[in-house]
Amino acid sequence: MKYFLLIILFIINSCSYPKLTRDELVYDNNFENEQLTEIDGGSIMSYNNTKVIGNYNNDGFTLHLNDLGAHDYIYISFDLYIHGSWDGNFNGFNIQDHGFEDKPDLWGMELRPDMNSYQNTEFQRFETSFSNSDCWPNYCLRQSYPNTFPFVNNPKSGSDKVDLVENCIEDGWNNKKTTLYKIEKGFDHKGDALIVRFYDKLFQPNAINSKGESIEKCDESWSMDNIKIRVITYD
Question: Is the N-terminal amide bond of 104 cis, ω within 30° of 0?
């Protein structure tokens, strides 16, 4: 028995574990100073007594960082505001009744979007759907978050705050409130430069007001705040 325990102790002591040698915050932006130097497609708006980057509808922005130094992983955290009537995995339309195929309301982030052919999409992209729908036994437009699309979860799953103030109010429209998500995602990443694209793919065939005007951005949009990026290195 004593000999057996000695063998176990030898095996445990022989195991080597990676040692964390770097955990550094390389980007931190709350947009209060409207700093967009490293961002393409950036715009600032005021929302709920703070400044955020946005709002976007079938659009997005790209963040470029250089001189990161050697590292193995990056972690990206941020506040994501989902404004309006996002419908999640399905919008409730069908070809028979509406003449077009249903599509989800997607939101995503991807690394190095200019080099898709070199990406492993399973690890270098996170794409999901969000829903601000009510959820009743006979009606519930479900979302994928906190999983990737096409997983199925209830509306607002994983949210930090719900029923925040509307970003836009249109007379005679079913104005939905805003949902806040606090998100952190980690990715394998090496190299001195980082390019991250944040985007959406929204489907809104009925976003037309009583005057016949298109109101896509008032109907569904998103914005972000408090973006932080950390680089991690192990020996």
Answer: no
Ordered per-residue pLDDT tens for the chain, 235 residues:
555 555 555 555 555 677 888 899 999 999 999 999 999 999 999 999 999 999 999 999 999 999 999 999 999 999 999 999 999 998 665 655 545 567 899 999 999 766 554 555 555 899 999 999 999 988 899 999 999 999 999 999 999 999 999 988 777 666 789 999 999 999 999 889 999 999 999 988 776 776 777 788 888 999 999 999 999 998 8
Domain-by-domain residue ranges, the chain?
20-234
Total length of the chain: 235
Q: What is the pTM of this model?
A: 0.86
Instruction: Report the topology of domain 20-234.
Output: Jelly Rolls (2.60.120)
Decide: 72 and 230 in contact? Cβ < 8 Å.
no
